[in-house]
Design brief:
Blueprint (H helix, E strand, L loop, with lengths): L1 H17 L4 E2 H5 L3 H4 L4 H17 L5 E4 L5 E4 L14 H13 L6 H13 L27 H10 L3 E5 L8 E13 L2 E8 L4 E6 L3 E7 L14 H8 L6 E8 L4 H6 L2 E6 L2 E8 L3 H6 L5 E5 L1 H16 L1
Antiparallel strand pairs: 1-3, 2-3, 4-5, 4-8, 5-6, 6-7, 9-11, 9-12, 10-11
Helix pairs in contact: 1-4, 5-6
């Protein structure tokens, strides 16, 4: 069984690498003996999708192209699947080894280890483990709890548009978003996706913990140009009010809102179970304050108070 599958994968890879135009499923089925022997269309489709995913996991870059008739085709361009000789010094090899350790607690552990093995086979030097010996208790890793992380990471890698249901902090129910994903980044314990929102025709950043249901990928081309540098953290920081140039005065219920207390530049008790805080005021602070509901009252400035009231009314009326 293992030999038969390896032969089928090899034949599929050769077909995709040897063609100058995208090949449809129908053409691939007529070119590979194992696919011809598939009992029916459903069996063939399942086999082909598994094989395609396996080849991508092995590192083959497979493009999905839609022709003028709306039929989907596949090809693997040689220039996209040709790597230059691996030339890394000991420090660069150590950095890659450390990066691989980050993912050892996640589902990407196998992919990270496999990538290191391929690089070593290509000539990457063996690097001394900076966390070996007496420091082995130190375990660098990135926590990933959101189910949306893996399908979005693969969509970013393969440049595939996605569709998912997203609930904004001020909305009572989620809404469907069509996104061309660019990059994922972790900022202050939360994962964020940056990409092009097709419905809004602009760049948007989405917090993964607010994605509900499954992430569905789409076989289509990107409609917007992917920027050379995607500043996810800077964008999120701006929306979170990190680029604040003013101060806001809020009242916070005692024992509540610890993230707000951590940002406060001054805290005063005002009695009746309330504290008064001064916090940096920047773009996006109104959306953040709404998340604390009745535990927060905005004293000033007036425009911030009005924005928070408008958001609360929108949620109440949804």
């Amino acid at each position: 069984m293992a030999i038969a599958k390896a032969e089928r994968l090899m034949n599929l890879a050769l077909c995709l690498l040897g063609t100058r135009r995208p090949l449809s499923k129908r053409e691939l089925r007529g070119s590979i003996e194992a696919y011809m022997e598939a009992g029916n269309d459903e069996s063939f489709n399942r086999m082909f999708e598994r094989d395609k995913d396996d080849l991508r996991e092995l590192g083959l870059v497979i493009e999905t192209v839609e022709n003028l008739d709306g039929e989907t085709g596949y090809l693997a361009r040689r220039d996209s699947n040709r790597l230059p000789p691996v030339s890394l010094d000991a420090e660069e090899a150590a950095a890659l080894g450390l990066a691989a350790k980050v993912w050892q607690q996640a589902r990407l552990a196998g992919a990270a280890s496999g990538a290191l093995q391929k690089l070593r086979a290509g000539g990457m030097p063996e690097a001394e483990d900076p966390y070996a010996g007496q420091h082995s208790a130190i375990e660098p890793r990135i926590p990933v709890h959101e189910a949306a992380f893996e399908p979005l990471m693969l969509a970013c890698r393969d440049r595939r548009p996605v569709v998912f249901d997203y609930r904004k902090s001020t909305a009572a129910s989620p809404e469907t978003r069509q996104v061309e994903p660019w990059a994922l980044e972790c900022w202050r314990g939360h994962w964020y996706l940056a990409g092009y929102d097709r419905d809004r025709g602009a760049e948007r950043v989405f917090r993964l913990s607010r994605i509900t249901g499954k992430v569905r990928s789409r076989a289509a081309k990107y409609t917007a140009e992917v920027p050379d540098v995607v500043t996810v953290r800077e964008t999120v920081a701006s929306w979170a009010g990190e680029s604040a140039d003013r101060s806001a005065l809020i009242r916070l219920r005692a024992g509540a809102g610890y993230p707000l207390r951590a940002k406060a530049t001054a805290v005063r008790e005002v009695g009746d179970g309330w504290d008064e805080l001064e916090i940096p005021y920047g773009h996006g602070l109104d959306a953040w304050l709404v998340e604390f509901g009745p535990d927060v009252v905005v004293v000033g400035p007036a425009d911030l108070r009005a924005d928070v009231v408008d958001r609360l009314r929108a949620v109440a009326g949804a």
